Amino acid sequence: KAGQSSKSEQRREFEGRIELEGSLFCVLTFGGDWSHWERHPAGDELLLLQTGAAEIELESEAGRVETIRLNRDTPAFLVPRGIWHRVRAEQDSRIAFLTPGENTEHR
C-alpha cells in the first residue's frame, strides 16, 4: 500500500562514526532487513542494541543459519571473526557496532 514500507525494505541512518586503529565504531538506526551479508576476517564484531529489537543471522561454513535475538534482556552479541552475518529488524532499532573494518567482505 502507498505510504507503507514492507519488512524487507530497509531504512538506515548513521548517527555517528569513529575510526579507531583499524576498527570502526558507529551507531546505526534502521528498520527492515539488511540486503547483504558481511564478514570480518580481521576480528570479532561487537553489536550493542540500544533501542528496539533485532535478529542477527549467522551462517556457518556448512551453510546452516543460526538466529540470535537482541532485545532488552540480551542487548549485546559478539559476532565471531570470519562468520557471515546480517541483521534483521521488524521495528526501528538502534545498534552500536564496533567492527574490525580491514578486509571486510560483502555478498
Please sum up the structure shown.
With 107 residues, the chain is an all-beta fold. It has strands at residues 11-20, 23-33, 38-39, 45-51, 54-59, 65-70, 76-79, 84-100, 105-106.
Uncertain ranges: 1-9
- Succession of helices and strands: EEEEEEEEE
- Number of distinct beta strands: 9
Percent of sequence in beta strands = over 45%
Distance between the termini: 30 Å
- Describe the main β-sheet briefly: 7 strands, antiparallel
Helix content class: under 10%
Tell me, rounded to a whole number, the average pLDDT.
87
Shape: globular
Find the structural class using helix and strand composition.
mainly beta
Compute the gyration radius: what is it?
Answer: 14 Å
Number of alpha- plus pi-helical segments: 0
Folded structure, characterized:
There is one protein chain. The strands form two sheets. Strands 1, 2, 4, 5, 6, 7 and 8 form a seven-stranded antiparallel sheet that branches. This protein has a two-stranded antiparallel sheet with strand order 3-9. The chain is mostly beta strands and 107 residues long. It has strands at 11-20, 23-33, 38-39, 45-51, 54-59, 65-70, 76-79, 84-100, 105-106.
